[in-house]
Write a structure and sequence with these properties.
single chain, four-stranded antiparallel β-sheet, 50% strand
Length: 64
């Protein structure tokens, strides 16, 4: 399980949300093969011409 922990990773930019922080799980929908439960590894919040959050994600392993 430890070796497979980082098998599926992604990074996305979303509309800013202060609740999106490292350690929180999110469920992606309507992303095709990326649909499912992901854990936020890193969140970078930026205010410049609007508020955005860049998320570094990894897919949760089955059973979590």
């Amino acid at each position: 399980r430890k070796a497979n922990k980082k098998e599926n990773t992604a990074d996305i930019d979303v509309v800013g949300d202060p609740r999106l922080v490292a350690g929180v799980t999110v469920t992606l929908k309507n992303f095709g093969s990326f649909d499912g439960k992901w854990i936020i590894e890193k969140a970078a919040h930026k205010v410049s011409k609007g508020y955005t959050t860049k998320l570094d994600l990894r897919r949760c392993l089955d059973g979590y």
